[in-house]
Amino acid sequence: MQDRILASQLIGYIGQQVKIEGWLHKKREVSSKLAFLVLRDRTGLVQVVIENEVEIEKLKGAQAGSIITVVGVVNEDARATIGVEIKEPTITVNVEVEEVLPVEIDKPISHDSENFDTLFNYRQITVRSVPERAIFKIKSNTVQAFRQFFWENDFTEIHTPKILAGATEGGTEVFHLDYFGKPACLAQSPQFYKQMMVAAFERVFEIGSAFRAELSFTTRHVTEIMMIDMEMGFIDNHQDVLDMTNRLINYVVNKTWETSAKEFEMWGATKPVLTEKFPQITVKDLHQMYFEATGEDFREEKDTSPIEERWICEYSKEHWGSEAVFVTEFPSASMTFYHMKNEDKPEVAYRADLLFRGVEIATVPMREHRYDKLIEQIKAKGLDPEEEGFKYYVSAFKHGLPKHGGFGMGLERIVQKMIGLNSVKEAILFPRDVKRLSP
Amino acid sequence: MQDRILASQLIGYIGQQVKIEGWLHKKREVSSKLAFLVLRDRTGLVQVVIENEVEIEKLKGAQAGSIITVVGVVNEDARATIGVEIKEPTITVNVEVEEVLPVEIDKPISHDSENFDTLFNYRQITVRSVPERAIFKIKSNTVQAFRQFFWENDFTEIHTPKILAGATEGGTEVFHLDYFGKPACLAQSPQFYKQMMVAAFERVFEIGSAFRAELSFTTRHVTEIMMIDMEMGFIDNHQDVLDMTNRLINYVVNKTWETSAKEFEMWGATKPVLTEKFPQITVKDLHQMYFEATGEDFREEKDTSPIEERWICEYSKEHWGSEAVFVTEFPSASMTFYHMKNEDKPEVAYRADLLFRGVEIATVPMREHRYDKLIEQIKAKGLDPEEEGFKYYVSAFKHGLPKHGGFGMGLERIVQKMIGLNSVKEAILFPRDVKRLSP
Predict the structure, then answer these.
(1) What long-range pairs does B283-286 form, CB within 8 A, spacing at least 24?
(2) Interstrand relation of B67-76 and B44-50 (parallel, antiparallel or unpaired)
(3) Topology at the third CATH level for domain A126-427
């Protein structure tokens, strides 16, 4: 049997007879003696020119989606994206689809939020559109780039449970389930586990499912995402964690633009402008700069506001040449118990937020690693360190953890921002939100 | 500041003064003038010889787990695993641990199932034992080897939802949860999703969490695992899927033994003996061979029995030179609706089970890809293809899927079998079973 040749390989077979296989993506009958079909395989689209009545007849009942084999001659064609077309075809219809596709896939599918029901309810169809598929090729390449970086930097991959006895951080917004009669919930984050694992592996990462029961009806919120988590020990200071994060983002952006250039182009995406060392600005300075620029006063706020985040990203792109910025020195008054206070300025915590293209994509803290201080900080929040949700966690500290820090980052958010999609949902094959539980 | 040198790098610094950092793993005071300590970092153990009263004094209150920095001279020592020890040390205790570890970690930790409570309840401590940590280094290297193979063979990584509206396959043994007032459950498998995604990517894989509410009290069953799922389209026949699976297993075993030789050695693990093409035996022939060899008669059974699986693996290792075997031609009478019947022998299905070291590690079928046949087979099981759990799935077929097949394989099972552990639980950092929901 003749070997199958993929669309992307055809340029190497000009003048030769080849066998291609794929989906009937589109067809156009000009006359009983001239027709065109476009075949789609996993690498691209190929046009086939049919000038033979018998072959045209074979496609009569076949709708888009039909599985076909074409044996024909590769003809150079400068107008085609892949540089070639197929002539003198002999066609075999392997699976004949009789019904017309419910969504047209040979033109871009609307990503207006009003069209989300079509986009997601027919995902098994819409993903067949080439630009749609490109989003998930980019996502696949992005997650691989993250892993490659972790791998090259001596991180160990871990897998931690997603069913927990208690809510992490005693938080709300968790999904509850029945575990053989016992109450349980779904993990919002592997944070406690990864910190505990620093004790054996020093540097760990996990890329896995995270669940948040956010009762929000905006187009922004989803309940299930892929979280990229890392944690590294034996740092000298907070800056070490920021440096690693900084290098990671540069690596991922460069790598992904290498592996997915064609796919980014389909979406008109521009490669993020990034400096080798991302600019850093303190919360205080950001408030002040924003006040001076706009007159709007956030100087008494502990946190940054979304509007400031967008503004500083724009400013940074223009003046500092970077679409990524670290905002540093968040007030310790608003910090969580597992963050560490700045030793020189106890009024601020070792916490930085990484902003990218207008949004916060990760909080990058140094953790409190000293057992006594941690216990103190847990109690100061009115929590009980002896409680089931804490006791294993604090035991890891009691028996020695080095200085460490890390972050959790949503894979879909990064992909969304790299491509320039409006909603994180568009970077998820089968999104879950307060109203959407299927397909 | 002097750079930190890791244990594994010290052999390159003989005669030089270096800085090492890590955990105080063990200490032994011979006299007020002679003491030994073992420092553990992420790459191994280093012995430090202390012949100075001041330095010995510094460690007085420090228990195992303390975080220490040692600056000293690298001395060749053929008796040491890493070939060197440290002399003339200056010690800094960065984090002093006062309490004695609840579990001894400088000797192997018992893996008897009676000791599982200690092993798992103190995981934040037990993982610090070097052989214990080795299991999870192997697991990290194994999962990376799987991905590397998929990557090199043009598979796209996908991420599918773990919260579902209905139970996949309408099955039992699912965990139920409350989704904003609507009933939902946790995914047992991404099978339907990956089949649907063949329509865009042809070859897909996912490595993610899978959940089974198995009410079983044996040491074998866990409720949460990492599933390695793949699906490939445009196959010519069932054998194509078996070949890919075959190549994958060979690749993973070879790669993992390259990256984790030291870790396998700690467990006395022997590299699996595998042929390039795994032997294949039909269910019928297996029953017959087993009957002839033992007198025990399973010839009327549709499925293989665990005892036959162990027996044929032993037989295959000895006579065929392979610890992996495909059992083929399962009766179609017992097949699921998504399997395809053998076109030449309709009494059997295109299903093979991959046995490895005595157990089934994957069912590797060719799927029914023809819409009409699939609907027929769903109805024959008394199920309704229009039901929420099926309607998106069957729509993908209605609009064209090529011949395809794939498998789901538990990562932990593979790791367990490669190392030679008794229970799959031992290959999970924080296992979940009917009785265990924390840490």
Answers:
(1) B283/B327, B283/B328, B283/B329, B283/B330, B283/B331, B283/B348, B284/B329, B286/B312, B286/B327
(2) unpaired
(3) BirA Bifunctional Protein; domain 2 (3.30.930)
Contacts of A208 in chain B (CB under 8 A): 208-209
**Which of the residue ranges A60-74, A383-397, B15-29 would you say has the lowest mean pLDDT?**
A383-397
Would you call B370 an interface residue with chain A, using a CB distance cutoff of 8 Å? yes
Token pair listed for B86:
């440290």
Mean pLDDT over A12-34 rounds to 96
DSSP β-bridge partners for residue A268:
none
- Chain B contact present for A105, CB below 8 A: no
Does the pTM surpass 0.90? The reply is yes
Per-residue pLDDT tens over the stretch B79-130? 888 999 999 999 999 999 999 999 999 988 999 999 999 999 999 999 999 9
Return left, alpha or beta for B173; rule: phi > 0 is left, psi -120 to 50 is alpha, else beta. left
The structure tokens 């917004």 sit at A173
Superfamily of domain B7-95: Nucleic acid-binding proteins (2.40.50.140)
Cross-strand partners of A73: A17, A87
- Dist CA A177 CA A187 (whole Å): 11
> What distance in Å separates the CA atoms of residue A120 and residue A114, rounded to the nearest whole number?
11
Q: Which two tokens stand for residue A116?
A: 């989300």
Q: How far apart are CA B349 and CA B335, in angstroms?
A: 7
**Which is nearest to A219 in space by CA: A295, A117, A290?**
A117
CA pair distance B36, A352, nearest whole angstrom = 41
Phi, psi of A48 (to 5 degrees): -120, 125
Give residue limits of the domains in chain A: 7-95, 126-427
Angle at alpha carbon of residue B247, lines to B246 and B252, rounded to 5°: 100
How far is it, in rounded angstroms, from Cα A67 to Cα A41?
Answer: 10
Residue type, A341: K
Reported ipTM: 0.97
- The overall average pLDDT reported for chain B is 95
Chain A residues within an 8 Å CB radius of B424: none
* Residues ≥6 apart with Cβ < 8 Å to A337: A368, A374, A377, A378, A380, A381, A383
Chain B interface includes A26 (CB < 8 A): no
Q: Which of B163, B172, B369, B415 is the best mutation test for A, with the most CBs of A within 10 A?
A: B163
